[in-house]
Amino acid sequence: MSEFDQKKKFLLKEIGLNSEENPDASPKGTIDSLCIPLITMINSHKDMVTTSSCSGRLSVFLEGSKDVKLVDEGTRENIKIGAKGDGGHWLFVSHEKDEIKEWWKSENIKFKYKTAIKEAEYNPNTRYVLFKYEPLILHVKCRDFSSASKLYSTAMGCGFRESGIGANNNVAIRISIRLDIPIGFLDNETDDILCTVDESYIKMVTKLAYDRFLENERKLDLLYERIEKEIINSVYTIEVKETKEERKERKMREGLARRDDVRKLKEEKRRLKQLQLEQQKSEEGSKTNEE
User: Which listed CATH number (1.25.40.390, 3.40.50.300, 3.55.50.30, 3.30.1960.10) goes with 3-232?
Assistant: First the structure.
């Protein structure tokens, strides 16, 4: 068994065992339901296997501690943009578009609205609240560069322009319809989460995220159709150049086959004509008896 086949066997076993009781290493722990049909189809191909996926999600994320130190005047070090560690966490996250309506009214979110902010309130250590929509991302390991290139080209043809082929023929399928908007920050003195935009603005960006969910689903369906048509069900034909002797033999076989077809057609015509004559005689005999 090749190294690829061993890896695929292991991954398929992991996918088969994945459940809420047996979560994987992702934050959600289970495969998104929207991805399952596409994953199942891709994994049915002998030269491909999925390694990770996300169908798309909306999240509101509070950055972690940045621990920025001023080395010299105007010089900073250890800047962590969108810091995920050191206390960084989701205030809200959902992979389902129908769950995002009025997310800011959730019991787990306690915003204090403060739209009039002085510049002095921001500093290098400010932990921002980021409103993020992230579309589909799918990673597929391919047997060789040929199969990876085919998958990559198919994805690009569907509009997944952020896709690419990485090391070991790993294909990342991505699309650029993301949102990444700061909407507030953490007050370090009070530990309050201050929302620097009003509710009407939050409604607007949530509507933008909802529209992206819809576009993401449309693109996901298109990707499924194209992969199914161009890779899973495609028929590859190999052009074979005949020698003179092979062409002569083929022509002879075709000629004999045509002659045989003509002979069978003539025999069928004779048989039908004979049946017609017999039927006519039978009808004439019936008329004579009636008279």
Answer: 3.30.1960.10
Cβ atoms of 154 and 145 closer than 8 Å = no
Phi, psi of 121, rounded to the nearest 5 degrees: -75, -15
Tokens at 152, concatenated: 């990559």
CA-only gyration radius of the chain, Å = 34
pTM: 0.73
Alpha-carbon span 128 to 42, nearest angstrom: 39
pLDDT tens readout for residues 200-212: 999 999 999 999 9
- pLDDT tens digit sequence for 158-190: 999 999 999 999 999 999 999 999 999 999 889
| Residue tagged 């049909």 (tokens) | 37
β-sheet bridge partners, residue 50: 140
